[in-house]
Amino acid sequence: MTGRMLGLAAVLLAVAACQAASPGQAIRSQDGSPPTPRAQVSSSASSAALSLGDPSPGARGEAGPVPRCRTSQLAIAFAGGQGAAGTIFLTFRLTNRGPAACTLHGFVGMQMLDAGGQPMPTRLVPNGGVFSNQPPASTFSLGPAAAGANVSSTFQVAYSDVRRAADVSCPPAFELLVTPPEELEHLSIAPRGWSLAPCNRGELDVTPLRAPGVAPA
Question: H/E element holding 156?
Fold first, then answer.
């Protein structure tokens, strides 16, 4: 019995000695292929484990936050107008002239100027008057004009051309300054082929900026 126990202990010691081999010792495969160093096996296993983890944003190709549109990269244009029951509707278009997309959210600011370039009474009312049923402002991305058609944001302006008791006159504007949301610099557009002569002390009702392709509600 003592001899068998000693033999078993010797076998266990031999197995432990094999498992304690140095990291650089080769591991022989069972199919007879060349041995692979332990260090290489360990490195490959670590690489495989890393590849299963969540890749970094750069590895996934994700872009960072899209910046807001700045005045310098936008262009404004008149897109059409119509009148009904004493109310004039004007539609304007903002286009991104920059090389990359930017975001817009909210209402533009506006200021009318007279023939001498001086400020005229201008009362801007977001979603006011006939636009009281319009949805609130939303954030959207405005792609560069070079990307193709239908990449412009639009907004509408409405005003009354019917004189009220408080109106001495309803003089026409010779220039309209338009300030994009959260900006200090403005864009300028002059009435050419359309008029801007609001009564009611210069009240201009305006919709929020709309994403490309979104029609008025």
Answer: strand 153-160
215: burial class by Cβ within 10 Å (0-12, 13-18, 19+)?
A: exposed
Task: State the Cα–Cα distance between residues 40 and 191, nearest whole angstrom.
Answer: 75
Task: Quote the pLDDT of residue 149.
Answer: 57
Strand 140-142 and strand 26-27: the pairing is: unpaired
Helix (H) or strand (E) holding 46: helix 38-51
User: Is 180 in contact with 94 (CB distance < 8 Å)?
Assistant: yes
The whole-model pTM stands at 0.69
Query: Which tens digit of pLDDT belongs to each residue from 31-52?
Result: 444 444 444 434 443 333 333 3
Spans of the chain, pLDDT less than 50: 1-61
Number of domains observed in the structure of the chain: 1
Q: What is the pLDDT of residue 54?
A: 41
Which residues constitute the domain of residue 133? 71-206
CATH number at residue 132: 2.60.40
Does residue 84 form part of some domain?
yes
Query: Does some domain include residue 135?
Result: yes
**Is the Cα dihedral 31, 35, 36, 37 positive or negative?**
positive
- Is-contact 28 35, C-beta < 8 A? yes
Tell me the backbone φ, ψ of residue 102, rounded to 5 degrees.
-145, 170
51 in any annotated domain: no
